[in-house]
Amino acid sequence: MPSQPSKALETFDNPQPERDYTIRIRIPEFTCLCPKTGQPDFAEMTLEYVPDKRCVELKALKLYVWSFRDQGAFHEAVTNEILSDLVSATQPRFMRLTAEFNVRGGIYTTVVAEHRAENWSPPSAVSLP
């Protein structure tokens, strides 16, 4: 295979660091393993962030997400691990990772984890008529 899973998260310079703007990335094919049974768990993840100086590179993100395919992890743990790794790599002003796991035994799980930079305040929402 030309590509392999990788835990390396590459970044690039934010092209508009003076502006607050939101990047939304939909990750519809996340998989990991149930740590109790070894069966696959499937989730759709949504990453939303306000970058500061760095943005995550998408191919590296794809290979990073792929690296969890054979890893056993509880939903709560893997969501927070991914958020922590992304925050460490990009140091965003704000980042939210929402992981919506498919049904397992009649139960759906959604885990939402957030990071907010210490001295960042979100801009006021604009309400248009």
What are the defining features of this structure?
two-stranded antiparallel sheet, 2 helices, globular, 129 residues
Please tell me about this protein's structure.
The chain is an alpha+beta fold and 129 residues long. The protein is built from 2 helices and 6 strands. Strands 2-3-5-6 form a 4-stranded antiparallel β-sheet, covered by helices on one side. A two-stranded antiparallel sheet has the order 1-4. The mean pLDDT is 96.
Mean pLDDT: 96
Query: How would a textbook summarize the main sheet?
Result: 4 strands, antiparallel
The helix/strand order is: EEEEHHEE
What's the end-to-end separation, in Å? Answer: 53 Å
Structural shape: globular
**Helix-and-strand structural type:** alpha+beta
Short recap of the structure:
With 129 residues, this protein is of the alpha+beta class. The protein is 19% helix and 38% strand.
